[in-house]
Amino acid sequence: MTIASAQKTLQTSTALYDRSFWIVAFSFLVSMAFATAPAPLYVVYQAHSNFSAFTITVIFAAYALGVVASLFTVGHLSDRVGRRKLMLPSLALGFGSALIFLFAQNLSGLLIARFVSGLGIGMLTATATAYLMELHAKAHPGTGLRKAEITATAANIGGLGMGPLVSGLLAEYAPAPLKLSYSIFAILLQIALVLLLSTPETASPVKGWKYRPQAVSVPHHERRTFAAAAMMAFVAFAMFGLFTSLAPALIRGTLGISSLAVSGGVAFLVFAAAAVMQVFSSRWPLTAQTHWGLSALAVGLVVITGSMLFASLTLLIVGGLIAGSGAGIAFKAGLGTAIRIAPEDQRGEVIAGVFLAGYLGMSVPVLLLGALMLYISLIPAVLAFGALMAGLLIVTAVLAAPRKR
């Protein structure tokens, strides 16, 4: 082979991996956006079917349950079967969920659709994150993983913010509020599926492996570090869970604002703040990310609680921006910490463990808040949620504190 032909082959390979990198990023973004698209629509379902706040949290919890079940059973398998082989069925599950939303809009249909959507996301998050890193490394060897990390977190958190913004605007200003958003996302997921067929595999399948459920293997001396990383994901996603489940109903019931565009816009601002701060803080040391992330979460929590006490949309937006910034930085710090301590051949598995903790955080505290609202009024329930979150933040800070030697 001549030098010229070798250079041409290298350029072709680089172009393929670069193109595949952005295809995976697009697929990741669309899937995450679809995962949160129902958030502003819950109040529409609530009005049509007279759902209680607890029913809404149960519907939301069905999604989180699907994510956790998928992460625990198959989310870690991309290390063994390959990244693309796991991403394709995850997108197919998302497409199937969109069809269920379109044609079965009773309570059982919503529960099934959200659970199926969660199954797809559980297969996707760690897989797509690892896929992006490997595609970037093959396209630009020796340049570090910063671009891949920023793209992965932006597609993840940015996608979560785009979903409620798009569905809220469409539901407020376009016809068929419970149909149009799902139709658009079904088309986008189909496009992502077709494009993903052209991407190369980056993980070598393991021959003769035996199936086992999710298990996180980290060096013994790094277990406390991983626990801190998992807790940072837990508290960050707990805040995200509040804004993608009960926040639209709280905005309508407490603040008297019925606009679905406002509900979707508030959720978008929270996730947008998270995504922007992830990029802004990308060069900070992990210790600084941890400190500022947890601090902003604590301040944002206080302001959000105050917004409910004083029925103030302004305070809710300010608190959401602060808490979203903190959640974005804290999650990035947790993910970065896990990547740093993960053995190379178990990277997908360890990342899946962080997402598992995150989605437990997204479901459990919010489900508890919804249950409380069955028995006590809104204000005491919000105060109880704030106290729980404050306790979790303290535990996380203790775990993340530098240890004395």
Written overview of the protein:
- The protein is mainly α and 405 residues long.
- It has a single domain, classed as MFS general substrate transporter like domains (Growth Hormone, Chain: A).
- The chain contains 15 helices and no strands.
- The protein is globular and about 55 Å long.
- The mean pLDDT is 85.
Q: Give the biggest sheet.
A: none
CATH superfamily: MFS general substrate transporter like domains
According to CATH, what is the topology? Growth Hormone, Chain: A
Number of strands: 0
CATH class: Mainly Alpha
List keywords for this structure.
single chain, 405 residues, mainly alpha, Growth Hormone, Chain: A, 15 helices
Give the arrangement of secondary structure elements.
Elements: H1 3-36, H2 42-49, H3 53-73, H4 78-81, H5 83-103, H6 107-139, H7 146-173, H8 180-196, H9 223-245, H10 247-255, H11 260-280, H12 286-310, H13 313-341, H14 347-372, H15 378-400
